[in-house]
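for the recovery benchmark. tokens below, seq after
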């Protein structure tokens, strides 16, 4: 009988909506968040949209006693907005910035200016090594006409790749953040199927919070009901995901969310609801229990692989839609640039008339000539920059589509390698307390 060590870990996640001078009651809400975190003493705190480093430093000072270890991830023009606070020492950090993140000319949305990324820290939870990730994906501004869907699918693809390739030696993997995806959205299914991550809200034994675990609710005074259409009550787009390893079992015993209002305060912490998950970690799992627990999931491995092939095929379709759109926009930029160049040549030809025909007067006033020239140069500059941007977008989309195509081929080959039927006494996989992903190697 193997020796089992148990450890309880409380994880907190919140999109702080911390846009200085734009978000309502920003300084007061940060003070409320810091006060709450200091009292609750979560083991790990994952924050998003902490756009100002000054706000991070204020939180760091306020949480110096309860959470002595922290890291702020810097990226993009105004930062990634990602921060992690921990009661446990942080041994290593890394940041991966997503290759696609909206469009610079959509300034009113602002996603492009914030360097959306995934941040990782490595820390020890007792004798266990934990890889903890925090991320914030591109927002969905319209459910019906979501022009950012290909970008968000690519972000989900890059996120699962980053987690898989960096967590191989970890006993525990925890991911928290604002994914801006509904539970059954394509990107969410891609992320969870590929990595084997489990949803705290789905897995928890006990829940206390908003209906259906919603994290963007109509009752929140910072939320406009128009933003939630067609979902009148609210949506669930913030998550705490987790998984164990072959030697570590992990369960969610309790999960809660805030419910809009905060006692003794006139407004909530943020426009998003905060999440808290209480995870129980068990190391050195007995072989018999692990084998029994894994038997059903191993027998269904062909089904999981087939499901992942379908998800990847759907993801490739969305990426191809983005490819066609980017190609069309690049062609439009090139055509507009050619028109601007032709207009410039025409103006130069008109300007050359006085030198070619001696004594002829300039047909245009000097001011109009300079204004037209400035317009031509502006058109050329803007279209040139747009052409470069759309070329970069095309390459990122093509790269993701190529990777997905190779992954589909590999999974289909793996699917053909499964026997039609396995006898009941077939050897099982090694024990483990984690949900196996479809990419687990065969023995």
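predicted aa per position
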């Amino acid at each position: 009988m193997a020796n089992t060590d148990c450890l309880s870990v409380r994880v907190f996640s919140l999109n702080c909506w911390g846009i200085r001078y734009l978000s309502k009651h920003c300084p007061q809400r940060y003070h409320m968040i810091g006060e709450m975190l200091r009292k609750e003493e979560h083991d790990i705190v994952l924050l998003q949209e902490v756009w100002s480093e000054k706000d991070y430093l204020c939180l760091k000072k306020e949480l110096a006693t309860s959470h002595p270890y922290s890291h702020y991830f810097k990226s993009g023009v105004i930062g990634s907005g990602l921060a992690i606070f921990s009661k446990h020492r942080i041994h290593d950090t890394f940041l991966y910035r997503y290759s696609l993140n909206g469009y610079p000319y959509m300034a009113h949305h602002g996603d492009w200016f914030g360097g959306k990324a995934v941040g990782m820290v490595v820390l020890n939870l007792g004798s266990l090594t934990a890889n903890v990730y925090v991320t914030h994906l591109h927002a969905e501004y319209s459910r019906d006409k979501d022009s950012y869907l290909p970008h968000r699918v690519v972000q989900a693809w890059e996120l699962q790749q980053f987690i898989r390739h960096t967590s191989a030696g970890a006993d525990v993997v925890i991911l928290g953040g604002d994914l801006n995806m509904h539970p059954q959205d394509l990107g969410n299914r891609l992320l969870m199927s590929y990595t084997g991550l489990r949803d705290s809200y789905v897995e928890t034994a006990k829940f206390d919070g908003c209906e259906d675990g919603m994290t963007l609710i109509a009752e929140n005074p910072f939320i406009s009901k128009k933003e939630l259409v067609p979902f009148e009550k609210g949506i669930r787009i913030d998550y705490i995901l987790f998984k164990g390893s072959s030697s570590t079992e992990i369960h969610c015993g309790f999960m809660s969310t805030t419910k809009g209002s905060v006692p003794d305060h006139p407004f909530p912490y943020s426009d998003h609801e905060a999440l808290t998950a209480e995870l129980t970690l068990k190391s050195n799992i007995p072989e018999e229990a692990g084998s029994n627990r894994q038997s059903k999931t191993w027998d269904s491995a062909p089904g999981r692989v087939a499901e992942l092939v379908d998800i990847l095929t759907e993801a490739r379709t969305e990426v191809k839609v983005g490819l066609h759109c980017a190609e069309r926009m690049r062609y439009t930029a090139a055509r507009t640039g050619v028109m601007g160049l032709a207009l410039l040549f025409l103006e130069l030809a008109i300007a050359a008339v006085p030198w070619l025909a001696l004594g002829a007067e300039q047909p245009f006033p000097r001011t109009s000539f300079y204004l037209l020239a400035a317009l031509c140069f502006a058109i050329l500059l803007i279209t040139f920059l747009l052409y470069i941007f759309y070329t970069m977008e095309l390459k990122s989309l093509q790269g993701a589509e190529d990777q997905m195509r190779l992954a589909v081929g590999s999974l289909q080959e793996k699917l053909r390698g499964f026997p039609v039927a396995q006898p009941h006494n077939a050897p099982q996989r090694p024990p483990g307390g984690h949900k196996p992903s479809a990419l687990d190697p065969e023995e």
